[in-house]
Amino acid sequence: MDKIIISELEVFYQVGITEAERAKPQRLLLTVEMAHDFKAAAARDDLAETIDYAALSEWLLRFGEGSHWALIETLAADLAAMILDRFSPKQVTVEVKKFSVPQARYVAVRVTRPVKL
Q1: Domain that holds residue 17
Q2: I need a surface site. Which of 68, 89, 100, 101 has the fewest CB within 10 A?
């Protein structure tokens, strides 16, 4: 299966357990991998036959506005469900990187969800 990958998109969402963490949006990096069959898009050179990654990127940049999550696990699961619903890949993997442990470069969660038949 072919894939579209958006790697380490910088977003600012309110996420965290403590009030201090949720007080203002935090910098997160999102990586999204979507399985999709490119045959028709490549044959016709037609954006309508594939997933518009620019539109998805813009949507992800705005996704966190007015929302907050305690866990990045919940955020990743919510993102995966919404991407499946709005952009219709065959499968999506979402990785969320957070920079909350000073001794680590980052902490991350990754979820993979198939399309529901």
Answers
A1: 3-114
A2: 101
